[in-house]
């Protein structure tokens, strides 16, 4: 998440009674009677009933190493677009393998359930004589945090810079229904595109209506898949009826804002 | 709506106490005290407090005719892709004008709010010296009927035949969440594609969760915009988290079903 969006998630957590502490390493965890004592590097002591450690995913590569397979990014099994490893007749897919990123045009380590399903299908089909290529991932993700939903796809601004683009990222807060509609709720969208070409590179959305928000990120993911420009988002013939949306979908309003911002800065 | 889907809408209406009578022309409407008396051609008499007549939209073309503008489909003002009429410096947009259909590659009469907004933007920009082309409509629509939502985009099977395609339409009833999820609800999707080329031509979805259903039609509308094949829908990197979807989105499950059906019939 970009910092602005991260703050919104933090507010949601805190308003639900969660204490958020960031930037502090855990130095030790000790048991004291029925509790757990957490000591941080800065000297803070916290008491917990249960601790969940979520420090990222590591590819399980022991079997692969034993079999002599080459490893790639972050120790994941090196694969090509048809999910072949460097050893003939051994294919790999899922969280143990690398993932081809379709904007970066290179392999990354990005273990996601949706990607594992797609890679598994490709590997399976090729194992039985098919010829299918994995079309790549955009890192599309969605997460539900109490009543807030945050979703993203493609490159964030900093990633786009690193990948050699000249990104412009524009944020917009917009109602997800016509303003006269009592059920209208705020949605924050930020959209990233390349200044030189107008190409759509990524987006993040945060709001309250989960599944329609997620499906809006999917509209953007579909547009990136087809190498559309941000301007093209305004041309999409999206559905509309007052109880469900607005004549210009929030995604299109964000795209217009991006185009206007680019024109103003040019 | 295709007849199968029409039946589902009928059931929703009837289960909410609406009496549905189809295929009967209204012969006369008469006032009797505080009620209205409707006489049908088949001799049925109905009593009403209020009558809504919804018999389609007709282009309001009087001003245009007076100004000497050429009319096109269904009496709508004839326009080109930059929204020019046949008279220099007069542009037209919205329900009074024709709409370019991007699959049919010809003008149709299809007055929709979303289209009017897009055409108005194109006309406005061109009037002040811009050069923008209307990218066309797919007739994407969504309607809320009590708790059911029905949405569609692109060509229905019969329309596809008429347009010279060799359509295959495949329907699928699918849960919109993982089966273990208590909030999972049924969604009916039917998807139409060309047998020869695999090109995605259209889809209809009916179900209960309005806005996420509508946004799923929008994923398909975006895919049609980019001339994707049905097979490509399975490659889209769509978002997933258990409370909001399934690892293969219903749209992708329907696409797989379509491909399997084509293979089986081939």
Count of discrete domains of chain A: 3
What is CATH's topology name of the largest domain in chain A? FAD/NAD(P)-binding domain
| Low confidence ranges of chain A | none
Beta strands of chain A, count: 10
Query: What is the residue-averaged pLDDT of chain A?
Result: 94
Identify the CATH homologous superfamily of the largest domain in chain A: FAD/NAD(P)-binding domain
CATH architecture of the largest domain in chain A: 3-Layer(bba) Sandwich
Helix content of chain A: 25-40%
The count of helical stretches of chain A stands at 7
What is the strand arrangement across the widest sheet of chain A?
6-7-10-9-8
State the shape of chain A. Answer: globular
What share of residues are in beta strands of chain A? 15-25%
Write the SSE topology:
2 copies of one chain form a homodimer.
Chain A: H1 3-15, E1 26-32, E2 35-40, E3 45-48, H2 62-66, E4 99-101, E5 106-108, H3 113-127, E6 141-145, E7 148-154, H4 157-162, E8 167-175, E9 186-194, E10 200-207, H5 210-225, H6 230-233, H7 250-265
Antiparallel strand pairs in A: 1-2, 2-3, 4-5, 6-7, 7-10, 8-9, 9-10
């Amino acid at each position: 998440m970009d910092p602005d969006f991260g703050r919104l998630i933090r507010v949601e957590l805190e308003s639900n009674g969660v204490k958020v502490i960031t930037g502090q390493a855990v130095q030790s965890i000790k048991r004291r009677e029925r509790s757990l004592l957490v000591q941080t590097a800065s000297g803070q002591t916290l008491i917990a009933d249960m601790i969940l450690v979520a420090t990222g995913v590591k590819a399980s590569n022991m079997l692969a190493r034993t079999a002599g397979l080459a490893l790639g990014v972050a120790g994941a099994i090196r694969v090509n677009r048809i999910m072949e490893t460097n050893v003939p007749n051994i294919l790999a897919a899922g969280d143990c393998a690398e993932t081809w990123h379709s904007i970066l045009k290179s392999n990354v380590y990005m273990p996601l359930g949706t990607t594992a399903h797609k890679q598994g299908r490709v590997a399976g089909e090729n194992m039985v004589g098919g010829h299918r290529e994995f079309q790549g991932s955009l890192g599309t993700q969605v997460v539900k945090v109490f009543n807030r939903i945050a979703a993203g796809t493609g490159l964030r601004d900093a990633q786009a810079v690193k990948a050699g683009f000249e990104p412009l990222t524009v944020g917009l807060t917009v109602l997800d229904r016509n303003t006269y509609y009592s059920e209208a709720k705020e949605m924050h969208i930020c959209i990233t595109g390349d200044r030189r070409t107008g190409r759509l590179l990524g987006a993040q959305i945060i709001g309250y209506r989960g599944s329609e928000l997620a499906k809006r990120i999917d509209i953007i993911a579909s547009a990136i898949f087809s190498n559309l420009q941000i301007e093209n988002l305004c041309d999409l013939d999206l559905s509309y009826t007052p109880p469900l949306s607005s004549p210009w979908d929030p995604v299109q309003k964000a795209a217009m804002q991006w185009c206007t911002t680019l024109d103003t800065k040019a």
